[in-house]
C-alpha cells in the first residue's frame, strides 16, 4: 500500500515531540503552526532530522504543497481549533486524503467530525495519544478510531512511532469514528483515579505518619519493584525525592496544591453516568481535583471548621495493599465503562487489546496490565475484571488491609475519597443482598413505583397501599 505524504499541524509540546518521532523513524514530514515563527525554530531544533522536514507558512499552504494522497495530523487543543483546522483542510483535500485528530478530543466531537469530513470524501481518524512529551518523542501508546481502510493505510507509520512492549507495537484501531478517542478518554479517567490514590497514600504517610517527602519517595521507589510497579509510582518517587532549586527544600513543598479537571477525567464520569454506570474511584478523583481548585475556600475552612488531623499508625504493607486494591478498582471501573460504550455504540471493543496497548508508552502503564490482558483473554466470570481468578485473589488479600487504612484514615480525619470509594465499590459488589430493598420500599411508598418481590413477581406494591 502506498504511504501517504505526512503533515503535522501544531508544533506545541506534543506536536513537536511527535514530529521528531516521525522523522526519527525515517519518514518525511511537512509541518506548520498557527504562530508561523515557531516553524523555523522547530526546523532548527530538529538538527540532523531536518533533512526530511519541510516547513510551511500555514496549514493551507502545507496541504497545498504536499503530494497526494496526504495524511495531516492535527495536534492542537481539543475543540474549536480542530474544527477550524478541518474547515480549512476541506477546502484543499480530496478523495484518498486523511485528517488525523491526535489531540484529546471529546469522542462525541470525533463521531460528528467523522460524519462531516467523510461526507466530503476525505477520511478521518480520531487518534488518542498517551505518554506526555517523552512518550510522543520516543513512543506513545496510540488508540485509534476510524474505518478499517484508513487504519490499513496508516498502520505502518503509526505502529512504527508507537511504544513497544516486548517488541509488539502499543498502537491499534479499536473501532470506527470515536472509539479511539473514547478509549483514550477512559485511559485518562483511570489516570485521574490512579494519581489521586497515590496522592492520598502520600498524604497518609506525610500527615499521618509524619514522614518527609524524600522518605515517602523511597517507599514509593521500593513499591515500584513489586506489584505496584508502574510509571506513576515511579515518577511519584522521583517527584518526592526532588529538591527545589530556590528554597532548597522538597520540590513538592514549592507546589500549590491546586489542580484543574477540565477535560477527559470529567468526560469519563459524564459518559459513565449517562450510560447508567458509576466509576466511583474516577468520580472521587475528579471531585478531589475540583475541591483542590477551591484553595481560598479551603484556607477559610481550615480557619472556620478546623477539624484537624490526628497522627496515624499504619503499616507500610497495609498502605501498599490498599493502593494496589484501589488501582485494580480504577482499571476495573474503566473497563466497565468501555464495556457499556462498546454495547451502546456497537464498537465490539477488544478489552485485551486495549490492556495490551496500555502496557507501554502511556501514563497508566503498570505491571498489572499484562495480567489484565490475560484475564480478558481467559474465562472472566460475568465479564468482571475483579472476578478474574488472579485479581479476585489479590483483592481477597488486599481488602482487609484496605479496610484498616480507610477506617484509620477516616477516624483520624484524613480525607481519602478515592480509596474509600474504591473500597465501597468492592464491598458492594461482594454482597449478594444490600440495602436497596428499603430504597425500593420508599419509592413505592411515596410514588407507587412498584418493586420486584423476592418470591417472584414484578411491579408489586407494599402493604402501605392496602
Ligand atoms: N501535553 C500532554 O501531555 C498531552 C498528552 C496527550 C494529549 N495531549 C493533547 O494534545 C493536544 C496538544 O497538546 P499540547 O500539550 O501539545 O499543547 P500545547 O503545547 O499548548 O500546544 C498547542 C499547539 O496548538 C496550537 N494552537 C493552539 N490554539 C490554536 C488554535 N486556536 N488554532 C490553531 N492552532 C492552535 C499552538 O500554536 P501556537 O504556537 O500558535 O500557540 C501549539 O502549536 C491537546 O489536545 C492535548 O489535550 C496532550
Automatic annotation (TrEMBL):
> Pathway, per UniProt?
Carbohydrate degradation; pentose phosphate pathway; D-ribulose 5-phosphate from D-glucose 6-phosphate (oxidative stage): step 3/3
EC category: oxidoreductase
Molecular function in Gene Ontology: NADP binding; phosphogluconate dehydrogenase (decarboxylating) activity
Which catalytic reaction applies to this protein?
Answer: 6-phospho-D-gluconate + NADP(+) = D-ribulose 5-phosphate + CO2 + NADPH
Which residues constitute the catalytic centre? Answer: 184 (proton acceptor), 191 (proton donor)
Instruction: List the InterPro entries hit by this protein, alphabetically.
Output: 6-PGluconate_DH-like_C_sf, 6PGD_dom2, 6PGDH_C, 6PGDH_Gnd/GntZ, 6PGDH_NADP-bd, 6PGdom_BS, NAD(P)-bd_dom_sf, Pgluconate_DH
Ranges where the 6-phosphogluconate dehydrogenase C-terminal domain occurs? 180-465
Q: Which domain of life is it from?
A: Bacteria
Q: Where does NADP(+) bind?
A: 10-15, 33-35, 76-78, 104
Please state which protein family the record places this protein in: Belongs to the 6-phosphogluconate dehydrogenase family.
Q: List the NCBIfam families hit by this protein, alphabetically.
A: gnd (TIGR00873), PRK09287.1 (NF006765)
Quaternary state and interactors: Homodimer.
Which PANTHER family does this entry report, sorted A to Z?
Answer: 6-PHOSPHOGLUCONATE DEHYDROGENASE (PTHR11811)
Listed name of the protein = 6-phosphogluconate dehydrogenase, decarboxylating
Source species of the chain: Roseisalinus antarcticus
The record lists the lineage as: Bacteria, Pseudomonadati, Pseudomonadota, Alphaproteobacteria, Rhodobacterales
Q: Which gene encodes it?
A: gndA
Amino acid at each position: 500500500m502506498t504511504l501517504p505524504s505526512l503533515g503535522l499541524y501544531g508544533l506545541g509540546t506534543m506536536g513537536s515531540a511527535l514530529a521528531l518521532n516521525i522523522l526519527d523513524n525515517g519518514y518525511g514530514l511537512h509541518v506548520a503552526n498557527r504562530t508561523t515563527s515557531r516553524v523555523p525554530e522547530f526546523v532548527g531544533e530538529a538538527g540532523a532530522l531536518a533533512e526530511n522536514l519541510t516547513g510551511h507558512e500555514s496549514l493551507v499552504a502545507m496541504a497545498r504543497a504536499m503530494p497526494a494522497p496526504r495524511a495531516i495530523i492535527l495536534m492542537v487543543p481539543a475543540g474549536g481549533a480542530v474544527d477550524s483546522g478541518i474547515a480549512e483542510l476541506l477546502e484543499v483535500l480530496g478523495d484518498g486524503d486523511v485528517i488525523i485528530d491526535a489531540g484529546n478530543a471529546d469522542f462525541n466531537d470525533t463521531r460528528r467530525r467523522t460524519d462531516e469530513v467523510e461526507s466530503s470524501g476525505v477520511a478521518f481518524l480520531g487518534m488518542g495519544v498517551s505518554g506526555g512529551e517523552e512518550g510522543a518523542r520516543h513512543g506513545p501508546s496510540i488508540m485509534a478510531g476510524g474505518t478499517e481502510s484508513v487504519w490499513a493505510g496508516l498502520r505502518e507509520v503509526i505502529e512504527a512511532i508507537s511504544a513497544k512492549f516486548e517488541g509488539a507495537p502499543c498502537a491499534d484501531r479499536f473501532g470506527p469514528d470515536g472509539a479511539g478517542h473514547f478509549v483514550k478518554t477512559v485511559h485518562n479517567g483511570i489516570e485521574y483515579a490512579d494519581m489521586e490514590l497515590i496522592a492520598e497514600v502520600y498524604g497518609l504517610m506525610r500527615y499521618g505518619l509524619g514522614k518527609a517527602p524524600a522518605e515517602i519517595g523511597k517507599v514509593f521507589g521500593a513499591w515500584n519493584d513489586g506489584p505496584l510497579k508502574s510509571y506513576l509510582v515511579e515518577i511519584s518517587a522521583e517527584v518526592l525525592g526532588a529538591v527545589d532549586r530556590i528554597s532548597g527544600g522538597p520540590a513538592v513543598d514549592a507546589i500549590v496544591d491546586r489542580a484543574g479537571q477540565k477535560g477527559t477525567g470529567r468526560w469519563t464520569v459524564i459518559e459513565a453516568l449517562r450510560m447508567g454506570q458509576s466509576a466511583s474511584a474516577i468520580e472521587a478523583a475528579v471531585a478531589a481535583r475540583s475541591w483542590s481548585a477551591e484553595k481560598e475556600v479551603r484556607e477559610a475552612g481550615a480557619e472556620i471548621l478546623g477539624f484537624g488531623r490526628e497522627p496515624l499508625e499504619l503499616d507500610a504493607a497495609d498502605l501498599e495493599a490498599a493502593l494496589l486494591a484501589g488501582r485494580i478498582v480504577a482499571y476495573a471501573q474503566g473497563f466497565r465503562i468501555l464495556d457499556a460504550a462498546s454495547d451502546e455504540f456497537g464498537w465490539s471493543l477488544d478489552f485485551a487489546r486495549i490492556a495490551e496497548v496500555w502496557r507501554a508508552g502511556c501514563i497508566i502503564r503498570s505491571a498489572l496490565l499484562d495480567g489484565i490482558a490475560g484475564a480478558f483473554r481467559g474465562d472472566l466470570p460475568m465479564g468482571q475484571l475483579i472476578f478474574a481468578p488472579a485479581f479476585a485473589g489479590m483483592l481477597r488479600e488486599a481488602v482487609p488491609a484496605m479496610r484498616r487504612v480507610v477506617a484509620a484514615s477516616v477516624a483520624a480525619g484524613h480525607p481519602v475519597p478515592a480509596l474509600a470509594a474504591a473500597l465501597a465499590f468492592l464491598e458492594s459488589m461482594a454482597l449478594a443482598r444490600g440495602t436497596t430493598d428499603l430504597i425500593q420500599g420508599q419509592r413505592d411508598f411515596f410514588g407507587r413505583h412498584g418493586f420486584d418481590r423476592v418470591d417472584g413477581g414484578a411491579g408489586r406494591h407494599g402493604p402501605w397501599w392496602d
